[in-house]
Amino acid sequence: MTADPVPPERGAPSGHGAESYRAIGRPVTRSGGAERVTGAQSYLTDLVFPGAAEVAFATIPVGCAEIVAVDTSPATALPGVIAVVTAADLPPSASRFGISHQDRPVLASGTVNFHGEPVAAVVAETSDLARAAADAIEIEYRELPGVYNLADALTSDARLVQDPSIRPRDPLNDTNVLETADYAWGELEPEQARTHLIVENTYTFPMVTHFPIEPGGVVAAPTDDGGVAVYSPVQHPYLLQRIVADLTELPLSKVRVVAPDPGGGFGGKQTPRYEPLLAFLAIQTERTCRLVLSLEETFQLMRRSGCRIAARTGFTQDGQLTFHELSADFSIGAYADVAPRVMTKGSYVGAGPYRIPVVRVAARAVLTNTTPSCAFRGFGAPQVSWATESQLDAGGRQLGIDSLEMRRRNLVGVGEAFICGDHEATADGRWHESLERAAELIDWSEPVTPGRGRGIAVGIKPGATSGLSQSLVRLLYDGSAIVYAGTSDMGQGARTLWQQILAEELGVELGRITIISGDTDVVPFDLQTSASRSTVFMGNAVLEACRDIRLRVRRLYAEATGIDEADLTDSPGVMIGPDGAMPLVEAAQAALGGLRGEFVGQGTCRLRGVQGHPLGGDAAFYEFNCTAVEVDIDPDTGELLLTKHVTVGDVGTELNPLQVVSQDEGAAIMGLGHTLMEQVLLDDHGRIQNLGALDYRIPTFNDVAIEMVSDSIENNDGPGPYGCKGISEGALLCTSGAVGAAVADAIGVQLRDLPITAERIWTAMRAADARSAE
Amino acid sequence: MTQYRRPDNVEDVVRTLSDAEGNGRLLVGGTDLLVAVRRRPLDPLVLVDLKAVADLPPAIEVTEAAVRFGPTATMSDLAADSRLAAMFPALVAASRVVGSLAIRNRASLIGNICNASPAGDTAPALLIYGARVTIVGRAGERTIPLSQFFVGPGLTTCGPDEFVLRVDLPRPADGYRSAFERLTRRRGVDLATVSVAAGVSAEGSITLGLGAVGPTPLLTETAAAVDLEDVDAVEQAVKQLIGIATPISDLRSGREYRQAMIAVLARRAVSAAARSVGTKGPST
Amino acid sequence: MSERDVSRELAPVKVTLDVNGTAHRLEVPAHRTLLDAIRDDIGLTGTKKCCADGECGACTVFLDGRIVNSCLVLCAEAEGCSVGTIESLSVGGLTDLQEEFLAAGAVQCGVCIPGQVMAAEALLQTNPTAKPAEIREAMSGNLCRCAGYERIVAAIQAAAKRRGSSR
Ligand code: FES
Ligand code: FES
Q1: pLDDT per residue over B237-278, tens digit each?
Q2: Closest Cα partner for C117 from C43, C52, C57?
Q3: Which of chain C's termini has less CB crowding within 10 Å, N or C?
């Protein structure tokens, strides 16, 4: 890897340039793409399991209740019913489980803690029968005064979502606060003295759901060796394997997890939920058991935590930040899942990529009787960024300094710290370049048409802070190759990148590379597919495996030909000997000789955590994005028309420009969802009112900006292969901030609650009119 | 459990409905009905498919004096019909925003009104054009104005063993103009938060059909002619007309916003209608 | 429920329909959707299921030449009809449209893509010179949560261009 030592001109394309690589940087089309455009790709529910029994759940129509009695006999009596299982029917090993907190029951036991939590499961011969039987189960329950929002959860006499016995050693177990995170640096007093303006506001971010187009499901089957095979479109097969093994008391070797490519993950398919239950059902009934989820059921399985952020921010007269205080409460739902981590990591970068002498961040993960929240693209950062970006604009507007200038004056330069204290974090990219590029692309210096407004915002997210990815590469005799890499390919196109790396390093043709993933029996360990880590972690592991092969080829070639190894050198795709260069695959074939065989290379990428670090370690990289938008507001209805949407990511190196642009645009448009329309609405009983596609609105073709521009800054400065960084979350980090700023620019009023609906804009305009009439 | 019937004549449809004892549901496009069936698969509904009935009126029949719609007329049929677009622009505009293209290929006009959703897209337009609904049952046919058809959310005067055989729209009088306006939460496919169809006559009387601002789609008309050039007069007239609206708060919008938007949309629809080119009456 | 004889009530409806040129005789419960019949009874899983409410377009198929959401059609209703699924498009290799989807980077997780391709095919057949705004309008019943919307519009435009120049 060669890094460009000369700082490129501002705004000029600064990339390494694809010319010097054979496969890297090229718009290689998606591996698995042909299968996907023809319908041949098999997602979980497309797989055929002959003789499988179907599973359905019995639930109750409230969000919080004590289960008084469950009469399963009406269901058991029905024809075609194989088993009806409640918590009482599970073996003692089926304890509560979780990632950081062991708090989720395999089936609701004693109480129902959120709308849709399964009380009983039916296994039947067909899905119709399973559904009919589940509906026949009589559940007697007593509704309890559940806490469905932050305010209710945090009152002193709030009902506890979790019984203190679930976390006996936790000093906070008599409250609904599951975990807290505090970050602080700097001395407040001196900074207050030079503060010219203090802005204080409260912001809210709605609960939103992932809405994958593949709702998915789980299949579990008993195996011949007395174990169990679990099929799930899960992003972390090895985590699932461990949890199922723990709960069923089976050795890892007898728990096989097969993870077909997810049809959209976005973080929602990382952690085990119903998989342990299905494993028990399969073991108990000795049948393959299949659960197919409806879209509605996914709303009750995954969501982003809602958030309320109170912010107090100081500025000097010329717009420099002096201090920034945030208190952020995340409504995480009934069980922990990975939400405490979302809270910790999201609020860690809560103050943004800015130079701020004093920061105080106090965040809490608050339990509520709602769908347990989990990872969701952006991982807590979009919530807090919404407040911080809006604060910057609120300050700027009062000071008469525009959004771009506010960022120019406060954004850190490369190498400069934006998180101070014991575990400082510094900018690992030239972030100003993204800011300037976005400003240029939205024509920031041109005057805005009346009725329109422009906004610009930046967002940052820490990548993985520890990790382990292992990969095996087999270079076969005929010059084709097989890569074993556990990364789940859920749309980011990971497999395409592995192909590109092999093509680059070994000179194997793209079409002759097979990628194997998603089966714990076959593929070596990969910690997880999350935090946009794969390109960096697994990418490096694959790269290392390729270089391992190159080394082995050189050695064996020397041995086979009698040429002194010192006279041989290898470089990407070629072997250079005394007689010149030859393709590496030819050298490999010559080295293998008449016995044929193959080369096996191994690669590992390990990032160890750091003791005492609030995140458990330094982020391997930061995703940085700048988003700029222009909006047109209808003065009568408050309707917002997005006229232009610019997103610029600091990507290090574009390994594949097609994938970069599609990930970037996809994230940006997804960001419009929670910014403009998405929110899970609950009624007084904690029931999701907009349960399903009819009333939960996500962006369509027509909701995208009239003009959308996605661009990248390439400085080859990432830790991944060829200087790349993770890229797939950046563009939604600050969408809300940019749109919020544009709306404020257009109507003169700042909105602080997401989503920014037409109704909210209209209400804000009307309130402002009323104020000015006074 | 759901049952399916596919009668081939009108008489048989009526018989099947009456045998179903209140559980019969007419099926044409199914775009609303099947959404409900999925949620309650165990209900003992009898789905009566009209698509094989031979003696139904044709989907769209245009005569000198009127246009007649049969049960099988789909939104796509309406959307693509240039004769309709000239006479009933508000109806055609409404038919073009019902669901997605794939939905419009199935959804029927008559199904849309029988669903009796207060937010139904086509009802406001049909109302301003003076649509008449012909219902058939054991006692034979009866014809009523559409304005008397709706009873409440999801409720019509159509009995459990009756069904709507056709809808007739008289050709508008000379110089009549109309337009449709609608507000939704997002720009792509959505249910209406508020919708308005407006018609103005050559003499300047204004008719409004209002959607999603009352228990049923509403029809209201000015008593006297209004000078359509006079912005204040139109504003006043509209204000009075929309007085019949009784919007509520729901998932899609709060009451107050609906109330305000009905005024905005009504004003816009009236002025769009006034600006548009009028239709020619039946005599020319 | 317990007293009811569920198996009697699940008494099947006999349906004959043509799928991708092959006649199928099925016996299905009355409430079985065309989507479920295509996927589970006929075994063609290229047509996807998400919302089952006609809102996402993942289940788009041609029914007697027009695209419909197969989740909102009963299998029984398709009696005597001809159905075209995604599998019918590419029997002789990828279509120009499918190639353009790949070339434009329109395919991310891919689960919405069969429905997108079907809707786009219908659009190209009815409006071969559609402008971007018309493409967006016509396609807005097909959700893509990976939000490849810009890429898909580009793919459709490119395919339209190819078809235009080959005419
Ligand atoms: S599954 Fe048919 S439209 Fe969503
Ligand atoms: S490609 Fe993933 S939903 Fe469209």
Answers
A1: 999 999 999 999 999 999 999 999 999 999 999 999 999 987
A2: C57
A3: C
Q: What is the pLDDT of residue A533?
A: 73
**For residue A348, what are the CA distances in angstroms to A54, A341, A446?**
44, 10, 36
List residues of A whose CB lies inside 8 A of any B CB: 128, 131-132, 135, 636-637, 639, 641, 676-677, 681, 689-690, 694-695, 697, 699-703, 757-759, 762-763, 766
Distance from the CA of A755 to the center of ligand 1, in angstroms?
25
Question: Which structural domain range is residue B254 located in?
Answer: 177-275
Per-residue pLDDT reduced to its tens digit, A668-703: 999 999 999 999 999 999 999 999 999 999 999 999
For the segment B108-126, what is each residue's pLDDT rounded down to a tens digit? 999 999 999 999 999 999 9
Cβ-defined contact of C105 to A43 (cutoff 8 Å):
no
Last residue of a domain, one of A575, A607, A639: A607
User: Is B191 in contact with A703 (Cβ distance < 8 A)?
Assistant: no
pLDDT band at A494 (very low <50, low <70, confident <90, very high): confident
Amino acid at A22: R
Task: Report the nearest atom of ligand 1 relative to the CA of C72.
Answer: 2
Question: How far apart (Å, rounded) are the C-alpha atoms in residues A491 and A501?
Answer: 18
What is residue A13's predicted lDDT score, i.e. its pLDDT?
A: 34
Cβ of residue C85 closer than 8 Å to a chain B Cβ: no
Starting from the CA of residue C155, give the closest ligand.
2
pLDDT in tens, A547-605: 999 999 999 999 999 999 999 998 899 999 998 999 999 999 999 999 999 999 999 99
Phi, psi of C117 (to 5 degrees): -65, -40
The neighbouring-strand residues paired with B207 are B199, B221
- Rounded Cα gap, residues A665 and A187, in angstroms: 41
- Please give the number of the atom of ligand 1 that sits closest to the Cα of C57: 3
Best residue of C62, C99, C109, C112 to probe chain A, by most A CBs closer than 10 Å = C109
A774 in catalytic set: no
Query: Ligand 2 within 6 A of A37 CB?
Result: no
pLDDT digits (tens, 9 = 90+) for B168-193: 999 999 999 999 999 999 999 999 99
User: Is B44 among the domain residues?
Assistant: no
Q: Kindly indicate the confidence band of residue A526, based on its pLDDT and cuts at 50, 70 and 90.
A: confident
- A228 and A324 inside one domain: no
d(Cα B276, Cα B179) in Å, to the nearest integer?
8
Average pLDDT over every residue of A599-626: 93
Tell which of C7, C60, C77 to mutate to test the B interface (max B CBs under 10 Å): C77
Domains of chain C, earliest start first: 3-88 (3.10.20.30), 90-165 (1.10.150.120)
What's the distance, CA B182 to chain centroid?
14
Going by DSSP bridges, is the β-strand pair A111-112/A65-71 parallel, antiparallel, or unpaired? antiparallel
Contacts of B101 in chain C (CB under 8 A): 67, 119, 122, 138, 141
Show the 3-state SS of A326-343.
EEEEEEEECCCCCHHHHH
C37–chain A Cβ distance below 8 A for any pair: no
User: Max alpha carbon distance in chain B (Å)?
Assistant: 59
Q: Mark whether A584 and A619 lie in a shared domain.
A: no
Does A595 lie in the same domain as A713? Answer: no
Inter-chain CB proximity C52 and B76 less than 8 Å:
no
**Which ligand 2 atom lies nearest to the CA of residue A264?**
2
Query: How much is the pTM?
Result: 0.95
Give me the domain span that covers residue A128: 45-144+216-292
SS (H, E, C) B181-249: EEECCCCCCCCCCEEEEEEECCCCCEEEEEECCCCCCEEEECCCCCCCCCHHHHHHHHHHHHHHCCCCC
**In the predicted model, is pLDDT for residue C8 greater than 60?**
no
pLDDT(A216) > 70: yes
